[in-house]
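Quick start: read one record
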Amino acid sequence: MEKEFTFEKFLLNEEIGVTEYLSAAASCVDDGEYAREEEKLKKLYEKYPKVRQVLDWKEPQSLTEEECGALVQGVAIKNEIDLMEFRRVYFKGCADAAGYLKMMKLL
């Protein structure tokens, strides 16, 4: 028996906002690598609170040389987390496209 293909009908549901949709798709990243990166960033923020303030754009900060090195690490970790989320959103879009094609009986 063929399993029915289901997908979130984003374009057909006026109650779902783009930001909410992309946020939900990105937050679905549930592999261990994502959690490890988030944990590394959390520990970095705990050790260097000024780095968090710089990365969260709250206010200007003066950093020590060690904190500057931590800032570079923090940016690299945030970039890796963003890349994982972008991949998830990309594949979510591919799945939705396949769903629309199937709904239109083109697939």
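The mean pLDDT is 79.
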